[in-house]
């Protein structure tokens, strides 16, 4: 008997949670489930700013997929997706190909640099464990180089400057971690703290556009108190190897490390496979399917889902990706076994941004604002809740963040 084959691409928040839900919904004789991922581990994308700054161990952010997914029920395929052939219902992989009856695309994001000259070539991005590890190693290398440089006429000072392009959620969480890490590095390499600069550059008039003003003010003050400098309303015009050109006057800011967090788009495999993109992502139907494709769902950072109330897409978050996984699994069940498909409805549980160490801020429970240690404790609860959903109490004990700081 021919069983339908469901193939899930990407073991991020969307892919992992869809797989978990499908295991609950289908008996083994009802559907084959295959999860394709580049690595044999899942990583916590929401912790990558900590990996990049070097404030948590790399392994803390990684979870072996086989530890949390039943491999007798799901076939795990460790391979890299190259292209999706929609007409033949096939996925081309680096080491072969796989066909599907139903496809779930959860391949995550890539940086969007909006054509800023040099940004692609010269800036790092906080995108995967490996790319984040490059950043932490590079920053430490610059501190070591500074210490060993014999050039004493001030020319080596820029090695210690870290420029972060983009003052959105990721950029701000990252400079928060740097505010904790840089003093540690200064100590380690015996360098005065005021020699190393952390500079955040944002084109919009404010950091964290879209956030509540009181939260923005709190974040900015907290970070400035710990030595972060901000340039807002300042567009990066060009990124060179060791500097960025900023604003209409093209002020040159030299830096040993440049990290771009200013924009994301869908994994380029999606566009290259012929799915129509709007501002870098696929505008999916209300039931999360790709327009025109009855058997293809696109989730998480690869897609936009419209918020009918505001008329704008929901911001891309892990929270959104996980909720989409629920709807996607329900809709696959309906497609395969009959029944109406449901439309996705987002239940916003709030957002908390960490600002490094014991500092954080955000909103929970329909707009209640939290600051400082209370916000940090809530952030840890959110992180632990995800671990619980993924791997139960065992995973929380192994990787969780129980303490408020
Ligand atoms: P991802 O979680 O990025 O997963 C994509 C997966 O696809 C990865 O496992 C990757 O290895 C795999 N993959 C990619 N390419 C291939 C390929 N070619 N072949 C095979 N596999 C491939 N959101 C929140 O809700 N709260 C937060 O606090 C928060 N903080 C964040 C902090 C940072 C630093 C960043 C970068 C993002 C943060 N976000 C946060 C956003 C959130 O992480 C994303 O929205 C979320 O990860 C999207 O989930 P996803 O499943 O679409 O993609």
Automatic annotation (TrEMBL):
Q: Which cofactor does it need?
A: FAD
Q: Does the keyword Signal apply?
A: no
- The record lists the membrane-crossing segments as none
- Which one Pfam family would you cite for this protein? Pyr_redox_2
Enumerate the GO terms in the molecular function aspect.
NAD(P)H dehydrogenase (quinone) activity
Q: What InterPro entries does this protein map onto?
A: FAD/NAD-bd_sf (IPR036188), FAD/NAD-binding_dom (IPR023753), NADH-Q_oxidoreductase (IPR051169)
This protein's record includes keyword 4Fe-4S: no
Q: Which GO terms describe its biological process?
A: aerobic electron transport chain
Q: Which residues form the FAD/NAD(P)-binding domain?
A: 5-325
* Annotated keywords: FAD, Flavoprotein, Oxidoreductase
Family to which the UniProt record says this protein belongs: Belongs to the NADH dehydrogenase family.
- Name of the protein this chain belongs to: FAD-dependent oxidoreductase
């Amino acid at each position: 008997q021919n069983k339908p084959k469901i193939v899930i691409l990407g073991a991020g928040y969307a892919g992992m949670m869809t797989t978990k839900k499908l295991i609950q919904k289908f008996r083994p004789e009802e559907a084959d489930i295959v999860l394709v991922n580049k690595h044999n581990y899942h990583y916590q994308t929401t912790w990558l700013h900590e990996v990049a700054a070097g404030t948590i161990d790399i392994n803390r952010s990684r979870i072996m997929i086989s530890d949390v997914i039943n491999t007798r029920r799901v076939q795990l395929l460790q391979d890299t997706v190259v292209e999706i052939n929609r007409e033949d219902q096939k996925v081309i992989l680096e080491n072969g190909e796989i066909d599907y009856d139903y496809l779930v695309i959860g391949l995550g994001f890539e940086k969007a640099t909006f054509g800023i000259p040099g940004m692609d070539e010269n800036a790092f991005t906080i995108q995967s464990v490996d790319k984040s590890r490059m950043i932490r190693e590079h920053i430490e290398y610059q501190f070591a180089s500074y210490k060993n440089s014999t050039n004493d006429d001030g020319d080596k000072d820029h090695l210690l400057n870290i420029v972060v392009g983009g003052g959105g959620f990721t950029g701000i969480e990252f400079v928060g971690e740097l505010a904790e890490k840089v003093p540690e590095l200064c100590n380690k390499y015996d360098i005065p703290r005021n020699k190393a600069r952390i500079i955040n550059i944002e084109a919009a008039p404010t950091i964290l556009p879209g956030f509540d003003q009181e939260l923005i003010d709190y974040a900015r003050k907290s970070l400035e108190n710990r030595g972060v400098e901000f340039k807002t309303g300042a567009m990066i015009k060009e990124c060179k190897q060791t500097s960025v050109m900023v604003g209409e006057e093209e002020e040159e800011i030299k830096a040993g490390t440049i990290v771009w967090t200013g924009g994301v788009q869908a994994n380029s495999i999606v566009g290259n496979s012929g799915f129509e993109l709007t501002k870098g992502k696929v505008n999916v139907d209300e039931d999360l399917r790709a327009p025109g494709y009855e058997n293809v769902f696109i989730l998480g950072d690869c897609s936009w889902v419209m918020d009918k109330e505001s008329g704008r897409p929901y911001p891309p978050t892990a929270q959104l990706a996980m909720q989409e996984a629920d709807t996607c699994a329900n809709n696959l069940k309906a497609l395969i076994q009959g029944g109406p498909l449901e439309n996705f409805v987002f239940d916003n549980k709030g957002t908390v941004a960490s600002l490094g160490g014991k500092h954080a801020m955000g909103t929970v429970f329909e707009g209640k604002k939290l600051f400082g240690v209370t916000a940090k404790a809530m952030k840890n609860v959110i992180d632990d809740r995800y671990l619980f959903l993924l791997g139960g109490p065992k995973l929380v004990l192994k990787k969780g963040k129980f303490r408020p700081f």
